[in-house]
Amino acid sequence: MLTKPASGKNLKTMESKAAYFITSDDDFIAANRAREIFEELSKDALDEMSKEVIDGASQKAEDAEEAVLQTLQAAATPPLFGGRKFVWLRNANFFGDSKILKNGGVASALGKLAEYLKTLPAGSAAVVISASPVDRRSKIFKEFAALGGAEDYQSKDPVSACVDVIEAEARNLGVRFEPGAAETLASIVAGNPRMCAQEAKKLATYANFSGTISQRDVADMVPIFGESDFFDITNAFYSGDLDAALAVLKRYFFANKKASARPIISAIQKQNSILIQLRALMDSGEIPKLQGQQPRGAIEAAGAKYAEIFKNCEEKTPYNVFSQNAWYAGAKLAPIAAGTTLKKLMDCQMQIARAFEELLSPDATDETVMRDFFVRAMA
Length: 379
Prior knowledge:
By secondary structure, this protein is of the alpha/beta class. The protein has three domains: about 10-155, 3-Layer(aba) Sandwich (Rossmann fold), CATH 3.40.50; about 160-220, Helicase, Ruva Protein, domain 3 (Orthogonal Bundle); about 230-379, Up-down Bundle (Zinc Finger, Delta Prime, domain 3), CATH 1.20.272. Helix content is about 55%, strand content about 10%. A five-stranded parallel beta sheet has the order 2-3-4-1-5, sandwiched between helices. A two-stranded parallel sheet has the order 6-7. α3 (about 60-75) links the parallel β2 and β3. α3 (about 60-75) runs parallel beside α5 and α7 runs parallel beside α9 (about 195-205).
């Protein structure tokens, strides 16, 4: 279960605590949440000397021991001009390294820090620790997790973890995501927390830092993570406009002198596999054949009917249309499937196989193979 980030209001009530142990399976999520807490707690610090950030990233036991002892010393040293001290031990990656944790010096330093934090008056200092990865079975993890300000972000579903990152960014940026929009964004960027935060900021800028961001805004503004160029080419391929598609293809190879056709053909093959499934569902009457967006719940209802067939297929794959984001499949891909016959999609699949074979020839150039493929498949 993933612990949701506290709201700004909750942060204010947390100021009475002296220690915050923020952990996650993803280092960005832990660091992002810890930064949010540290900045909120220290915003009224008397001066910059009252704030201290210590890098906990360690490759060996000596580095980890030094970082922990520096944190202990920083927390115990009052600010020059009085007031509360604020310390952040960030990127503490050794909480997941059993070899480092078993080191005598590290174990001793962590033990001293844990004992100090248990009795540290909240009015004198606040210590924030962000750690990832972590070994939740270790004794030292359990000891730090027992601190009053501990938050553990763990989830087997990266999309769910990203949704919390998106919603936290939205609160900070003065916008909100309509129901389903955050999930759509998380799916498009493949559950990457950093990309979620970056794209959320771009969308907030697009919305002029006010109002609500819709699922359509997300689908229109955010490219598929890691495949933006290929996504544009795939869209052009299914547009039906051969001249425009060839122009996009030419620009891609012109701008990328060492470009390979393999990622492009793979992206098209994946989308074509999904389109075949959507068209088959339409032809069998499972979902309506519409030129526009599918009715709400249509994809999910079909998925429930065929759940038994895909029960052992939990990973996202183009060979299981129901593993895709339902809104994206229904709003962006279904209209393409509705306008393309199943025979044409199957013919396209055969042309894809032919293009793969042609790419294996030592005499073939990638751009020529792709141009010929576009002409044959789009004719």
